[in-house]
Design brief:
Elements lengths: L9 H9 L1 H9 L17 H6 L6 E2 L6 H13 L6 E8 L2 E11 L2 E10 L7 H16 L4 E9 L15 E5 L1 H6 L4 H12 L21 H7 L14 H7 L16 H12 L3 E2 L1 H8 L6 E9 L15 E10 L5 E7 L7 H11 L5 E4 L3 H13 L4 H9 L1 E3 L1 H7 E2 L9 H8 L13 H12 L5 H29 L11
Helix pairs in contact: 1-2, 1-5, 11-15, 12-13, 13-14, 17-18
Length: 496
């Protein structure tokens, strides 16, 4: 059996199913992984909450060492422990299974039910694959399993009383599908060992880099490839795949004059010439119907897996902040904002501030406005006192994104019209890299930290200032973007 520094986990078998190179990198070069945003429902531990669903039980972790974990697991099971048992560890042929929960089967007490915990609202195929490898390992160690379960968050759970999370989880029986995947665990384990013991595999990137989940090593792999600087895959809406099937790899190989889709033709022409596409008159016409005053609006939200406030559900988008630049016909600009980090439910204060701040006759402008409309409508339902004014404002919300998409393209956007891709090409002085909070993921993390009672007043103040600067930048960026799309001078001093 390999030593503890080379032990394999079920996730390694799952990595092999996606890509041999991912497997090798996870074992040998984990530092190359690009972190993907993942938001914990601070201060909650999802596994601790899952354990609380049981009336009793013995927790074996956290383990001091691998050998101690195995020894403690053997001792407690051989002594006839009635269960539940949390964080038991098993190993067979170098494959380690750390089991979230073992419970006695009430219909067959000599057998056990194996349960793994996930914060998703339904089981995913790769969850079942990992569970199958766990079950194989546990049974090879002489512990019979009657049922394999995935405990996940119940999507319909609504928090009624803060701190009362009974009913947050539901169990899904995946025994049949897990059993069906057990037959080749030993073979896959041998294949994993062969790959891990060799040199880094040379595997080209492709659609598999995104399924069943985005691979954190994809940037590393793409950097090793002799890829074209301007690949056809930069064409949006899957347009690049059509050309790739024809053997075209590079945007420079295409003729924009013969392309049937105007947007693709613009992308190709701008990429080849290095000159941005800019339809000033078209942008002016698109925005001509936006009445005054104009309210440039952006929300920051938190979508916690574990609901934080009464009346909320798992992963519900809750706005904790907004920035609003209110522009009058004569160009007069005032800035308004709302931010709640005291731990209380931010929705009532946010709804009141929106209804008070945005004039009833204003045109509300957002970037990818479907999100802002959805937040306004949700607040209207959740804070009935302001239902009528917020619903009316949702109906008056327009979108700057299609104006940008249809009238501007710079090749450095590389096929993206997100505001963070567009802004450096049209207003580089407003780059987010100079801010302490630079994207939505950092905003959520900062909110959770600022809201924690363990955060010092000094740190909380710094986080509040960083959040205000970030959200203010979002709305001021829209103002400047719209002006430059329309070819108008930046008459007002920067508020961002």
């Amino acid at each position: 059996m390999p030593g503890p520094d080379r032990l394999l986990r079920p996730r390694h078998l799952a990595a092999l199913a996606q890509c041999p190179r991912r497997l090798w990198l996870e074992v040998h070069r984990p530092e190359l992984a690009r972190a993907t945003p993942h938001f914990e429902s601070a201060p909650f531990d999802i596994h601790e909450l899952a354990r609380e669903q049981e009336d009793a039980g013995t927790r074996l972790g956290p383990h001091e060492s691998h050998d101690a974990a195995l020894r403690r697991t053997r001792q407690i099971l051989s002594a006839g422990h009635p269960g539940p048992v949390f964080e038991a560890r098993f190993v067979h042929e170098g494959l380690v299974a750390d089991v979230d929960l073992l419970t006695r089967d009430p219909l067959a007490p000599e057998r056990w039910r194996l349960t793994t915990v996930h914060r998703t609202t339904k089981p995913k195929p790769h969850h079942v694959a990992r569970l199958a490898a766990q079950m194989w390992t546990v049974e090879q160690c002489g512990v019979p399993i009657s049922r394999a379960m995935i405990r996940h968050i119940a999507p319909d759970f609504v928090l009624e009383t803060p701190g009362e999370y009974r009913g947050l989880f539901t169990d899904t029986d995946v025994t049949a599908s897990a059993r069906a995947q057990q037959s080749d665990v030993a073979d896959r384990l041998g294949e994993v060992r062969g790959i891990v013991s060799g040199a880094e595999p040379n595997c080209p990137t492709g659609p598999h880099c995104r399924k069943p989940a985005p691979c954190p090593f994809a940037p590393h792999c793409r950097a090793l490839e002799d890829a074209p600087e301007w690949p056809v895959m930069l064409l949006p809406d899957g347009g690049g795949r059509k050309w790739a099937r024809k053997g075209v790899c590079h945007l420079l190989e295409l003729d924009p004059a013969t392309m049937t889709k105007p947007r693709e033709a613009r992308i190709v022409a701008a990429t080849q010439s290095g000159k941005p596409y800019h339809d000033t008159q078209g942008a002016r016409r698109a925005m001509a119907s936006w009445r005054w005053p104009r309210a440039w609006l952006d929300f920051e939200t938190i979508a916690a897996s574990v609901p934080l406030w009464a009346g909320t559900k798992p992963y519900q988008q809750v706005p904790f902040q907004f920035s609003l630049h209110l522009e009058q016909t004569d160009g007069t600009m005032t800035h308004h904002q709302y931010l709640c980090v005291d731990g209380s439910d931010p929705r009532p204060g946010c709804a009141e501030a929106l209804a008070r701040t945005i004039p009833p006759n204003a045109t509300i402008i957002a970037y990818n406005a479907g999100f802002e409309r959805a937040i306004l409508r949700a607040l209207a339902r959740q804070v009935p006192e302001f239902e009528a004014p917020l619903m009316a404002r949702a109906e008056r919300t327009v979108d700057l994104l299609p104006v940008t998409r249809n009238h501007w393209y710079h090749r450095e956007q590389r096929g993206s019209w997100s505001i963070k891709a567009v802004l450096p090409t049209i207003a580089p002085e407003l780059a987010y890299t100079q801010l302490a909070v630079q994207d939505g993921a950092m905003a959520q993390d900062s909110f959770l930290e600022a809201s924690s009672p363990d955060t010092s007043p000094e740190r909380r103040h710094a986080l509040e200032e960083a959040l205000r600067a970030y959200c203010t930048r979002d709305t001021w960026a829209m103002v400047i973007l719209a002006r430059r799309l329309a070819g108008s001078p930046d008459e007002t001093a920067s508020n961002g």
